[in-house]
Predict the 3D structure of the following.
Amino acid sequence: MAYIIIPMILYADNTNFARRVLTQPCEWRPVATRPDNLALQFLMEKLYNKKKLYTAVLSSPRRWQYLMIVDEATQSHYDIMVELAQEGLELPAGVLCLAGHGRNFHGQRNRSWAGLDGNIHLVVWLKPDAGKKINPVGFTILSAVSVVETIDDLPGLKNRAGIKWVNDILIDGAKISGFLTHTQNLEGQVTGAILGIGLNVEATPDVPTDSFVSRTISLRDLQPDQKLCNIASVLNGLLNRLSDNYHHLETKGYACLLDIYRARNVIMGHMVEILEEPLQGKSDKIHAMGQVLNIGENLELFLDSQSHPVIRGRLRFKKD
């Protein structure tokens, strides 16, 4: 797959951390002027909060135009990006935000996500070309498949990762990654998509477990060789996978990615319970239960006990 080489503009508040997460060397210099784009200005103000910034340029054979690197984030950069989109400010295509560690990170329904140093906390802004109609669910599938394939590329981990409906990645039953998606739509067409991806690379979070998450794990637990498994190499692999799979999504649709999503799921044939998920608070109310028969084209679940597919809720495996 051929790509046009473009310059990727980097910003960072800590060049030591930036060097740690990049696989290519680059020359950093203090930022003299901010970009003209109002959306980029808004994003940088929220991310960096008047910190001294440095910038560099890398040649990128992919689609990424900007990479904002934040050592310690005080708020969710996914939320910042969603707020920006809701304000109607339009970013250029291919903007990345990466945080080293921080506070107020979260997953689905604002469930807390531990932001530990050594792990990937990535937000991606994608802007489909005008006229290209993409099913919004394709972006959820894009995130899941890209993370699984990134893990596949690590020595000894091929085919180890699986997808738990709808947005968790597990290895041997332990959670290693989760992701969020937010899309903007106009007249039935996706005009922008925000992907938030958390992936445990070098540190294993010590978080409370429950019936949904029995334990957590990191890639370093499974591949201890630091030369083979580190945040820079895994991030580089993830960005490449995201770029390639997004190209497939734009040019061929999401059918081929959906096939991978289905093939790598860990729920097919299992007895599960789907709990309702209110916008606020928790719920123990079971919406549906049964054996998983299939995953539909819009990621709806077909259960043997239900006459209609399940389209939302939180899944847990049913205990015997």
Observations:
- The mean pLDDT is 91.
